[in-house]
Design brief:
CATH architecture of the largest domain: 3-Layer(aba) Sandwich
Oligomer: single chain
Strand content: 5-15%
Radius of gyration: 23 Å
Number of strands: 11
Helix content: 25-40%
CATH topology of the largest domain: Rossmann fold
Strand order of the largest sheet: 2-1-3-4-5-10
CATH superfamily of the largest domain: Response regulator
Order of helices and strands: HHHEHEHEHEEHEHHEHEEHEE
Number of domains: 3
Structural class: alpha/beta
Length: about 350
């Protein structure tokens, strides 16, 4: 399949039919999901559409009567506080700008590229999370046909990118843990799951290098509550040992802390634990969770703004927009309790 073709605004259903060597009616049936075509024809049409990067203009029929933009938002899932905060920030800002939002979840989609292309026919632009759950070809499939904003992903040519700073704050919070005298420090989270976790692990490694120590390999687990609980069970069973954990998000950190304390371990006495995100619960648990404050709602709002600017033709910078993060010290790391900064 060709991947180097440059999309043009003149690509039409006629172009797809010519490339595939079939009738326009056959192309229409395939793109509408009809089963009244052979598998061979369906493959030829979809390959032609891929090569030409064709996005059907179904939404264009309503342009004469539509008075506001529709923005697509593609997320891996909605579990946990991160995605809900991101969605609220994105949707709230869209509402202020008079835009509607169409949400799509990657979870459970067998052909995500096709699903995103179909979503693109209903919206004026899309924002997507930079995650292993949303592969690169999903982003590049719309290259040149609709404005795309990538959230928390690696910068790509001609694709707007909005992200939070990760490496510096991860190095800072890891160095803080090491200064408490901890010698067996583990990083919880899979760097392959997305650029943000990868960069947090890079900061973890950098902090060890600065202290002339060797960083442990990451404990590659998903960033979900149940996975934190399962990890804690392994520690209680003696399968793993550590005196400090640097968790890639608060959901993991809080789940591990809860289960270890139920199992008779003390935090931070036996084990120091730090997280990432600074969710609301982090300031109310005992001990308070030391973490990195990431403005997730602001991240969603900025992505919505950036997409609106691209759709309306406003002049925007080509450089990725990076939002600062900050370390929040509470007492799960071993520091004495103090007035909460949040």
């Amino acid at each position: 399949m060709a991947t180097g073709q440059t999309p043009t605004s003149g690509t039409t259903i006629y172009s797809v039919a010519e490339r595939a060597g079939v009738s326009i009616a056959s192309v229409s049936r395939v793109l509408q999901g009809s089963t009244a075509v052979s598998e061979k024809t369906r493959r030829r049409v979809l390959e032609a559409a891929d090569e030409l990067r064709y996005v059907p203009l179904a939404a264009a029929r309503s342009l004469a009567v539509r008075h506001h933009e529709a923005h697509g938002l593609v997320l891996p899932e909605l579990s946990g506080p991160y995605y809900s905060e991101l969605l609220m920030g994105f949707e709230s800002r869209a509402a202020e700008l008079g835009q509607s939002v169409v949400l799509m979840l990657a979870e459970g989609k067998h052909d995500l590229v096709r699903a995103v292309r179909k979503l693109a026919t209903r919206v004026d632009g899309l924002a997507m999370l930079g995650s292993a759950a949303i592969p690169e070809d999903t982003v590049t499939a719309l290259h040149g046909s609709k404005p795309v904003v990538l959230i928390a992903g690696d910068p790509r040519p001609d694709v707007d990118s909005v992200t939070s700073e990760n490496t510096g704050s991860a190095a800072e919070i890891t160095s803080h843990v090491l200064r408490h005298g901890r010698t067996q420090v583990l990083f919880l989270g899979d760097p392959a799951s997305g650029p943000d976790v990868r960069d947090r692990y890079a900061g973890f490694v950098a902090a060890h290098e600065s202290a002339r120590r060797v960083a442990a390999e990451p404990v590659r687990i998903p960033l979900r509550e149940r996975d934190g609980t399962a990890f804690a069970e392994r520690m209680l069973a003696g399968d793993l040992s550590a005196d400090a954990l640097v968790c890639a998000n608060d959901e993991l950190a809080l789940a591990v802390m809860k289960r270890l304390r139920e199992g008779g371990r003390t935090v931070p006495g036996d084990l120091a634990i730090v997280g990432w995100d600074d969710v609301m619960t982090a300031r109310y648990v005992e001990p308070g969770l030391t973490t990195v404050r990431q403005p997730v709602r602001e991240l969603g709002a900025i992505a919505s703004d950036r997409l609106h600017q691209r759709i309306t033709g406003a002049v925007v910078g080509v450089e990725p927009q990076v939002i600062p993060t900050s370390v929040v010290i509470r007492s799960s790391c071993g520091c004495p309790p103090r007035a909460d900064p949040g």
